[in-house]
Amino acid sequence: MNTDLYGEIYGSGVYPLPSGYIVPRPQEVLDVTAADGATIIVRRHGNPNGPRLLLSHGCGLASDLYYPYWSLLTDRFEVCLFDMRSHGWNPAVSTGSFNIPTMVGDSRAVIEAISSSWGEKPCYGVFHSISTIVGLAHQLEKPDFAALVLFDPALQWPLRGNKTIDDVCRRQARRARRRQRHFESYCEMAKMFANAPAYSLIPPDVLMLLAETTLRYAEGGGYELRCSPEQEAQLYEWYFGFSMQIIDKLDSYDIPLKAIGADPTFQTSFIPSFNLSKLSKFEYDFLPDKTHFLQLEAPEECATLTVEFLEQHGLA
Q1: Most exposed among 67, 117, 276, 277, judged by the fewest C-beta atoms under 10 Å?
Q2: How confident is the model at residue 175 (pLDDT cuts 50, 70, 90)?
């Protein structure tokens, strides 16, 4: 078990990080071996006797970044976190393995390991952005989830065509490749994001948490991105084809699905939101005046919508 990683990332846990947040030490940690030998580190928080939530994150981010959101669920739920490969707690892997099918395989390995180690019970996926595509594709391959809560699942931009989505993915890939990869401090990265329009609604302490959870110590000093710009860009290049496949197979899902979107009138959303004509399979809500990063901007509202959905279906 890779429990020493907590100390490497967060120190002793006694003193707050610059953000002021203390992401708690997990109750249990699993090292999951993926099909190609990559390690995916799963952490368990919350109430082990409660309903099981499996949570993951958006491209280039980390599950611990969503602590302001998932910490509101730990009294009632068993919250299991995992990061996509080369993100968060996970060791770096080759860029060649960075694609949606491989990450679907990682997700399946995570579910199997959790069931084997922590007991079998219904699992409800809680995903954001690109991890919504992984979760939906996983469910098509193997129905491991009893319900899915999907934050701003990027299947289509409202009232726009496929070419627009493809253009957005290509543009995001180009931007990712130009991303600054080395920083002298957490504060440098947080200040950079504070000046970026896409991150303008995220509170300053959460921007600092973003830096703390997405940077690692660099060998030559300072900090570097855990997920490299090349890897992030490659995920965006895979994104379009898989989102289109899922749209074509929406009728295949027979579990409760909840889509919680950004404000559909915003033109600056980091990745496109749903086409409203495709929402018959989803219990769709959106948060007015919130962007793609809604769990970071409005964690209380997002937690309330999560619990309400599960309660409505008798799952919590």
Answers
A1: 277
A2: confident
* Separation between Cα atoms, residue 278 and residue 284, nearest integer Å: 10
Q: Kindly list the distances between the CA atom of residue 71 and the CA atoms of 75, 81, 138, 145, 198, in Å, as whole numbers in the listed order.
A: 8, 12, 25, 22, 24
For residue 95, the one-letter residue type is T
The phi and psi torsions of 13 (rounded to 5 degrees) equal 80, 0
Q: How many CB atoms sit inside 10 A of residue 212's CB?
A: 22
Segment 269-290, tens digit of pLDDT: 545 566 666 667 788 899 999 9
3-class DSSP state of 133: helix
CA atoms of 21 and 16, how far apart (whole Å):
6
Average pLDDT value over all residues in the chain: 88
| 195 in Cβ contact with 299 (< 8 Å) | no
Tokens of 130: 């690109």
pTM of the model: 0.91
- Structure confidence at residue 255 (pLDDT): 96
The CA-based angle 92-95-96, given to 5 degrees, is: 130
Place of tokens 């003193």: 15
For the record, the structure tokens of 254 come out as: 């027979």
**Nearest residue to 189 via CA among 177, 181, 197:** 181
Type of residue at 178: R
Q: Residue 280 corresponds to which amino acid? A: S
Contact 264, 289 (CB under 8 A): no
274, 158 contact by CB (below 8 A): yes
| pLDDT tens-digit map of 114-136 | 999 999 999 999 999 999 999 99
Q: Element (H or E) spanning 150, and its range? A: strand 147-151
What pLDDT, on a 0 to 100 scale, did the predictor assign at position 52?
98
